[in-house]
Amino acid sequence: MLSTYQYPKYDYVAPPEQRGQGPGRYPVVVVGAGPVGLAGAIELAQTGVPVVVLDDDDTVSIGSRGVCYAKRALEVLDRIGVGDACVDKGVSWNVGRTFFRDEEVYNFNLLPQPDHKRPGMINLQQYYLEEFLVNRAKELPNLDLRFRNKVVSVSPAGDGASLQVETPDGIYSLDTDWLIVADGARSPIRRMMNLEIEGKIFMDRFLIADVVMKADFPAERWFWFDPPFHPGQSVLLHRQADNVWRIDFQLGWQADPEEEKKPEKVIPRIKAMLGDEREFDLEWVSVYTFQCRRMNDFRHGRVLFVGDAAHQVSPFGARGANSGIQDTDNLVWKLKLVMEGKAPESLLDTYSEERVAAADENIMNSTRSTDFITPKSKTSLTFRNAVLTLARDHAFARALVNSGRLSVPAFLTESRLNTADTAAFGGDMVPGAPMDDAPLREAGKNGWLLDAVGGRFVALVYVADPAAVDAATADALRALSDAPIPVEAVLVAPRAGTAPAGLRLVEDYAGRFAERFDAQPGTVYLVRPDQHVAGRWRAFDPARVRAAVARATCNA
Predict the structure, then answer these.
(1) Which of 39, 295, 392, 457 could bridge across to 487 with cysteines, CB 3.0–4.6 Å?
(2) Which residues contact 233 (CB under 8 A, 6 or more apart)?
């Protein structure tokens, strides 16, 4: 039990199949009610797809576990209705500081630009996120969340999969057209299907100590190399909700995990760090090793792997849950189009292609971070300490400091779903890029660009004066919504005005859209349902937009 959190206990309800009722076959079944599984299930249910979620537990995660949720994940959580709850409860931060021994040698700001809705990162114990997601899931009538339902066998087939599910009332059978596997790093379903996961296990151990204390430390990420209070090792400090502070102590590979978790071992480490005079209570303790590895393919017929079931990285950089939430963000819109018969099943191959590329980027960054944090030779240690020493005074060395390259959204620039540029653009919003946010005003109310798009294809058309849009162009823009895969046209203008009937108008009153998207009058951006740029042009041509939609949905 934790002193700062009361664990919910969710009721087990006998499934209808065990009462001789229910359809027995469902469009989508999700296995795992952690952050990734629930995020995917909620997004599917919000779009009208009936979903069953199976979880073998009846509460949320034990201990704080995942803590850092990046701006991109928060933007996805906004879309599924829990972003405000997470940000309100969590600790927002943008600044990280790195220390070598007792001196600061480097700092960074995750969000140096103004005018973004969300911070660069929040710290929030995973159990809160899961509770918010469960509450949201229960609001959706087409989402059936079944606790204490343990999958004990999986039989994939060409048209779906058959499951055997164990409950307190016995075992029942369940069939599904599509199975989404979000059952964690040890993934029983991956093992049942004899699928391999390959990569590297790091020979080191870290102690997590969640400590309750009142401290006037700023809401920042602090990382120490070789501090005087833990010589020869590294330490990470994060503030969480409820005055809970996460401290990670590097232990070394020879440390005995069970011994290191004992309070008589943990408390002296914390006192050495904080001083004898600071009062604190030990909330939760765990010892972990970590690994960087992934499956070769995240799609196996109609079985789709997401989150830790598909890929794992070390915790330095907060790339685990953040990457998993981006997995479902990528998958759901594609799966829905395939289920509706509007796209071929090959579109789901691009889920694996795009997210494997993102996983490889995460693994590369996580491996480099881990090698810097835990050098495995005297030469590596000498190099690292030299870099840290030089970083105090020299910018080139600061770029080499690596206490965990923090989670950033994947730029899918090599995706075959992109339409290549035919005109010159500046800035970062290249085809495949995750969209930057910008403040907007619509119908006199202030809002945000990313809240205005998402869940559908959108064509953003930048105009100097919406009233000057001619009738033929207005008709062509409205016609985009009548296509088999509808595209909503949204006019973006630097000031308020009157748009042609049937077209949305948003005001770029701060000029951030024009700045961040290098928008000139006539510029058009086609945006995917997951808020990645699919294509862009300097003038509106409906045929080009339709061709880009076909390419982005494998209908070309």
Answers:
(1) 457
(2) 226, 249, 250, 251, 252
Of the candidates 360, 245, 271, the residue with the CA atom closest to the CA atom of residue 311: 360
According to the 3-state scheme, what is the secondary structure of 136-153? HHHCCCCEEEEECCEEEE
Question: For residue 414, how many C-alpha atoms fall within 13 Å in the half-sphere facing its CB?
Answer: 8
Whether 31 contacts 191, CB under 8 Å: no
pTM of full prediction above 0.85: yes
**Start-to-end CA span in the chain (Å):** 55
What domains, with CATH codes, occur in the chain? 16-84+122-194+295-366 (3.50.50.60), 439-552 (3.40.30.10)
Q: Which of 207-221, 376-390, 486-500 has the highest mean pLDDT?
A: 486-500
300's CB contacts (< 8 A; 6+ apart) are 156, 193, 195
For residue 310, the SS3 value is coil
pLDDT one-digit tens code per residue, 425-456: 999 999 999 999 999 999 999 999 999 999 99
- Contact predicate 109/121, CB 8 Å: no
Q: Are 151 and 163 in contact (CB under 8 A)?
A: yes
